[in-house]
Design a protein that fits this description.
The structure is a single chain. By secondary structure, this protein is an alpha/beta fold. The protein has 2 domains: 3-53 and 297-382, Aspartate Aminotransferase, domain 1 (Alpha-Beta Complex); 56-294, Aspartate Aminotransferase, domain 2. It contains 12 helices and 17 strands. It has helices spanning 3-10, 43-46, 55-67, 78-89, 102-121, 140-144, 169-175, 199-211, 282-294, 297-315, 337-346, 368-382; strands spanning 22-26, 29-32, 37-40, 95-99, 127-131, 162-165, 180-185, 188-189, 195-196, 215-219, 243-246, 257-261, 322-326, 329-333, 349-350, 352-354, 357-360. The strands form 4 sheets. Strands 4-12-11-10-7-5-6 form a 7-stranded mixed beta sheet, sandwiched between helices. Strand 2 (29-32) and strand 3 (37-40) form a beta hairpin. Helix 3 packs antiparallel against helix 9 and helix 4 (78-89) runs parallel beside helix 9. The longest helix has 20 residues, at 102-121. Bound molecules: pyridoxal-5'-phosphate. Residues 101-103, 106, 135-137, 186, 190-191, 219, 221-222, 247-248 line the site of pyridoxal-5'-phosphate (PLP).
């Protein structure tokens, strides 16, 4: 059986796939059907943040699979309660809603932002200011929240009420008026080109939102779970959102999403206001508990150290125009990124694109010998 032609015949053609069939992996190494080894600087788009089959995650997942894979949210199960406590205690947030993906977590955040405003001010205060070049997901509403025209085609009508600012304080302030419920942003725009918005902008926006009772919603789907050198990226800046969302790396290989609520928003959702059949699934949550336990100060220090190592290495290469991003979420500005990504793959290195950049999302704990080998491949391709 040829899996490439089978896939092309029977799986919806929504992805521009690279012609590689991965069958196994461990840590920062992946293997294709011919046994060829690849160094993984993509982590399945920031999902396998602690590496493929990270042992504590695998143990927790297997134990929970043996115990009880699913019960439904009509009953209590322990992994989701334990996970919610871990997220809250490490962020000073108050409550968590569990979903299964980043887009769903963002849907929930948008619902909560609008209901907060409705409960307090009545109708007419539902506008959400998002940013140009943002990415918030693929549902009709999260596409509407995504500040890229390419995503606003075909599926009309989109959810109303989103406007897009430049990532400057003046631009956001000019859009955020008395009809505005929330400002929604990623601290480092991932799909939009690995653009770090920076502390000055973020602290000003946070203060402005607080003054005007506009909710600050931070999308930590890609930046979260240690990726930028803190557990959640807003912790780099001493700001606290009213809602943040996360997914990807929280699951380390299983689907999970979470919308996390602060003081103001913790009690916005009541019984029947929102739900998800699989949300809070015990297996995904048991794995996520192991993920959070592993992301301690030592691991985060290692992220910052690896980040500096990569940036220093790449900045010295003549064909690299700039390196953007934060922590282990890095973008390389160079010519013809897509062709270079394909050339890396050919040489056994998995990297991604983001807009016209090469994007690196290696595991937070990638061993230095593997990291160095991967960077040498990148150097060859960039030469
Ligand atoms: C990937 C991503 C999403 C969407 O997550 P899914 O799990 O694919 O729904 C939303 N926001 C950001 C910032 C992302 O990187």
């Amino acid at each position: 059986m040829n899996i490439f032609s089978f896939d092309e015949q029977y799986v919806a053609s929504t992805y521009g796939r690279q012609k590689v069939h991965f069958v196994s992996g461990k840590g920062s190494l992946l293997y294709d059907e011919n046994g060829k080894e690849y160094i993984d600087f993509g982590t399945g788009i920031a999902v396998n943040g602690l590496g493929v089959k990270f042992q504590p995650w695998l143990d927790a997942v297997k134990a929970q699979l043996d115990l009880l894979p699913h019960a439904s949210n009509l009953y209590y199960t322990s992994p989701c309660a334990l996970l919610a406590e871990k997220i809250c205690s490490r962020t000073a947030m108050k409550k968590v809603f569990f979903a299964n993906s980043g887009a769903e977590a963002n849907e929930c955040a948008i619902k909560v932002a609008r209901k907060y405003s409705f409960d307090k001010y009545g109708s007419g205060r539902e506008k959400i200011v998002a940013l140009k070049n943002s990415f918030h997901g693929r549902t009709i509403t999260t596409l509407a929240a995504t500040g890229q025209d390419a995503f606003h085609k075909y599926f009309m009508p989109f959810t109303e009420g989103f406007v897009f600012g430049e990532p400057t304080f003046e631009s956001v302030k000019a859009l955020a008026d008395e009809h505005t419920a929330a400002v929604m942003l990623e601290t480092v725009q991932g799909e939009g080109g690995v653009n770090a918005l920076g502390g000055e902008f973020l602290t000003k926006i946070a203060a402005f939102c607080k003054e005007n009772d506009i909710l600050l919603v931070i999308d930590e789907v890609q930046t979260g779970n240690g990726r930028t050198g803190k557990l959640y990226s807003f912790q780099n800046y001493g700001i606290i959102p009213d809602i943040f969302t996360t997914a990807k790396g929280l699951g380390n290989g299983l689907p999970i999403g979470a919308a996390v609520f602060g003081e103001k928003t913790a009690s916005v959702l009541g019984k029947g206001d929102h739900g998800s059949t699989f949300g809070g699934n015990p297996v995904a949550c048991a794995g996520a508990c192991a993920v959070l336990d592993a992301i301690d100060d030592d691991l985060l220090a290692g992220v910052a150290e690896r980040s500096k190592y990569i940036i220093d290495f790449l900045s010295a290469l003549p064909s690299v125009k700039s390196v953007t991003g934060l922590g282990l979420m890095l973008g390389i500005e160079t010519d013809d990124a897509a062709a270079k990504v394909a050339a890396c793959l050919e040489k056994g290195l998995v990297v991604l694109t983001a807009k016209n950049k090469i994007r690196l999302l290696p595991a937070l704990n990638i061993p230095y010998d593997i990291l160095k080998k991967g960077l040498e491949v990148l150097k060859e391709v960039l030469a």
